[in-house]
Amino acid sequence: PEVFPVPPIRGGAVEAGIYEVARRLEGHGVHVLGIADPELPLTGQDGHVNYWRFRPARLDRWLLSTYKLPFKRSASRWYYWPYARWAGVHLRFLLPDIVNVKTRVQFVPWLRRAFPAAKIVLGIHQVSSLSAAQVWSERAIASCDAITGCSRFIVDELHRRYPKTCSKTRVIYNGVDTRRFGPWWDQPQVRARVREDLGANGGPAILFTGRLVEQKGLHVLAEAFARLARRWPNARLVIAGGRTYSDDTETPYVRRVK
Fold first, then answer.
1. Can you tell me whether residue 172 is helix, strand or coil?
2. Which residues partner with 240 through β-bridges?
């Protein structure tokens, strides 16, 4: 996507996923095309992973602005034209067997035109990617060889909104590094210490980690926890996150949840 770079030095769940999966594709030629960042070079290599980063020129920045004109909004495929054209040029040079586009169906028709021989897989990671019906055209859907969703919910929603995707979709769940994130029964002493620090011994402890925005449903969790706490007064709810990545701004929604 066009917001955060890879590696995920600015945060971003999709960007973290791209980075972690690319690192594990040893034995393959892996090229990550992404947006530029002042702290990263435009090209680079990390082991078997090659990075190519798009830095918008003045005209590109004008096209990528998102106000005033309808075609300059992210719901329009023209909004992504400079970035998609740049990616298409690189595809002609790299000659990939598989192109994995993340979250932006707007890229697919441009990339299909640029490199018709590649297998194009579109990965959907959030429902917001499904909201612009005008870019989910029959042409865009037909240009995808496969479409993946990171949950059954997203795939079902994709089918409901765009039935022509049904024959192309698969669920591929997000992965987890079990060396870093293990089940509690493998480290009971750590769990006991954390629960003691929270004062949650004898009651339930719940952790929420994510962006503090309405679409994540934190207010629903808070309402449910209020009922839970009446039954278990020593229950604990821990909330870790911000308005966006590494942003502690207290929005009206955050104040409401507090």
1. coil
2. 209
- Scanning 27-147, the segments in alpha helix (DSSP H) are 58-64, 81-94, 107-114, 138-142
Helices (runs of H) and strands (runs of E) counted in the chain: 9, 9
Handedness of CA 126, 127, 131, 132 (dihedral sign): positive
Classify residue 35 by its DSSP letter. Answer: E
Establish how many alpha carbons lie within 13 A of residue 104's alpha carbon, considering only the half-sphere containing its beta carbon: 23
Rg, C-alpha atoms of the chain: 21
Q: What is the dihedral of CA 158, 71, 243, 125, to 10 degrees?
A: 20
What is the Cα–Cα distance from 106 to 148, expressed in whole angstroms? 16
* Residue 157 CB neighbour total at 10 angstroms: 15
In eight-state DSSP terms, residue 40 is S
Residue 230, Cβ neighbours under 10 Å: how many?
9
Centre a 10 Å sphere on the Cβ of residue 194 and count the other Cβ atoms it contains: 15
> What does each C-alpha distance from 225 to 15, 94, 102, 168, 170 come to in angstroms?
31, 52, 34, 39, 34
In this structure, what token pair is assigned to residue 53?
A: 């980063």
pTM: 0.81
CA distances from 255 to 89, 216, 225, 243 (A): 47, 15, 17, 11
- Whether residue 80 is predicted with pLDDT greater than 60 in this model: the reply is yes
Q: What angle do CA 79, 158, 35 make, to 5 degrees?
A: 35
Report the alpha-carbon distance of residue 169 to residue 145 in Å, rounded.
9
Per-residue pLDDT of 240-250, as tens digits, reads 988 887 778 89
